[in-house]
Amino acid sequence: MTYDPSFARKQRLLRKKFGAVLVGLRMSRKLTEQQVAAATGLPLRILRRLENGCGNASWGELLSLTDFYDAHFEFKLTT
Question: What is the pTM of this model?
Fold first, then answer.
């Protein structure tokens, strides 16, 4: 298997886009980061990391956020 730099680039862009969506959802509801962290049970540092597009969200984090925001995310599996 060889390193594909385009894959890493796609991952970074996806994390940034996901973070922007999270910020948009929070701001549209006029909530603070602290309020979302308390309501979802996520540590504030994790929420900030995700909103800033850094690191990868775990399935548990994704489920907590989608449940809280009543949002739906689509994942595409390709071959």
Answer: 0.84
